[in-house]
Write a structure and sequence with these properties.
Layout lengths: L2 H22 L1 E2 L9 E5 L1 H4 L1 H10 L1 E6 L2 E7 L4 E7 L5 E7 L10 E4 L7 E9 L4 E10 L3 E5 L3 H6 L10 H4 L2 E3 L2 E2 L2 E2 L3 E6 L4 E5 L12 E7 L8 E2 L8 E7 L5 E8 L3 E7 L3 H15 L4 E2 L12
Parallel strand pairs: 2-6, 11-15
Antiparallel strand pairs: 1-21, 3-4, 4-5, 5-10, 6-9, 7-8, 8-9, 12-13, 14-20, 15-19, 16-17, 16-20, 18-19
Length: 305
Amino acid sequence: MHQHTFRVLLAAVLAVCLVGLAAGGTLAQDDTPSPEMEVVYDEFRTDDTVVENANTTGSAQVIKQNTRATVEDDDAFVRLGLENPNSYAVAFEVQLSEEIVRPATLGTVRATDTDGVTADWQAQHDFEAEETHTRVTVVVPAETDVLFTPSQLRVKSLSWTGEAEQSAETLRERVTTLWEDDRLEQRTYQVTGSEGEIVTVDLENPETGDRIEEWHATYTLAGDEAARPTPLAEGTGEPVFYRPIENDDGTVDAIQVTFNEAGTVSLTVEPTTTEKLGFEMTSYRSSVLDGFEWGPFASTARVTP
């Protein structure tokens, strides 16, 4: 099928989706409240007494501007608790020393005990001070306490430091090789991972140098297999995501899939034009239409790769 025909088909299918959207779609509202105050907790990074107390006892807390932040660190989890007793929403920024928490970019982290509250968890490098720390930002609603508990396995696997310690045993890393002798055994693969697991998929045959030039992938979460697949994206913070692994000359010869939550990745290599169309539709709906409630169209048939 020619590229022009492919584009015409894609445009036609998208037009059908937009008609359905106009008939029954409503835009989902952003429930994040507007903060009336911002409080920055840098004591967990800059105050030696607080940092030492956290390292000695495994816990430290700071109170300021009628709010409280608590950090606990044990063998299994990092716990960050934030308390906002005020009658208005507060924007928190918490800076954590690498002596307390290993700097890692986790992206979006959901509160364990409060629905709808998410934090942005990032590693920050200060080039002037030559130090890296963790920066967590979140808006906490009025009269609300929240708790974030990313696992140590997740933090360590995404850490900016201590990469030499990332042993296969520690990360439960397993390598999936798609190659069978000189050629690919098949074009579609299912890769299942448990929470915190990292799976490396070779895009180049280590014996012959043959490469997979084109691929795409989607994932579903364990226990939610009936949901439409989500495109596998590069980056961090999603329940399942990938990172490209480059060799010395900058060529990507593998991808590393991280399962923040248990799930299954469906990987298609050298996709056909029909498979590309299906994946384009899945990607389109995921990025644009997931913010809409489909009403009577919620149960319509799905196009999946």
